[in-house]
Specification:
about 160 residues; single chain; mainly alpha; globular; Phytanoyl-CoA dioxygenase
Length: about 160
């Protein structure tokens, strides 16, 4: 099917079990800034995860790939990737869109980036056993936090763009 528009009939709003604590958010931001990652357990309910899976399954069955159709939402079939990836899931999945105002995710993002931060993309994918991304990568240019003076001009990061 060449349809790129999915009428999401499930407008259920999901909530997490987290109570937002500003001191905890600040600790998470500091942890992320020091370690480069943060893993929050049990933010999503089982029902929310089930809806995210259902929406991704629908997208993988109904959207076109970018190799067949430039505005397609699926990763290129000829790219050699073992993952099945759908781009911009928030555009047709309310369960994905709900991720962006779900606590404590939204408070953490605003604490890390800014209160007016925005989503540039939202991909969902299935990684089969033995598949997936097996090397370090990042999807955006580095964001450097300058705490004193001017940014250094000689920064070199071992990351390919």
């Amino acid at each position: 099917m060449n349809s790129q528009i999915h009428q999401d009939t499930n407008n259920q709003r999901f909530e997490s079990n987290y109570n937002v604590d500003q001191q905890q958010i600040e600790t998470w931001v500091e942890t992320f800034n020091q370690q480069g990652c943060l893993f929050l357990e049990e933010v999503l309910t089982e029902e929310h995860c089930a809806q995210l899976r259902k929406d991704l399954d629908w997208a993988l069955q109904n959207f076109t790939s970018r190799s067949d159709d430039p505005p397609g939402k699926l990763n290129n079939k000829d790219g050699g990737s073992k993952i099945q990836l759908c781009h911009q899931m928030f555009e047709h999945s309310s369960a994905n869109l709900n991720l962006f105002d779900l606590e404590p995710i939204v408070s953490f993002a605003e604490g890390l980036v800014a209160s007016n931060c925005h989503v540039i993309h939202n991909n969902s994918f299935i990684t089969p056993p033995g598949g997936g991304i097996t090397s370090w990568h990042q999807d955006d240019a580095p964001h450097l936090i300058i705490t004193d003076g001017e940014p250094p001009k000689n920064i070199r990061l071992p990351v390919l763009f």
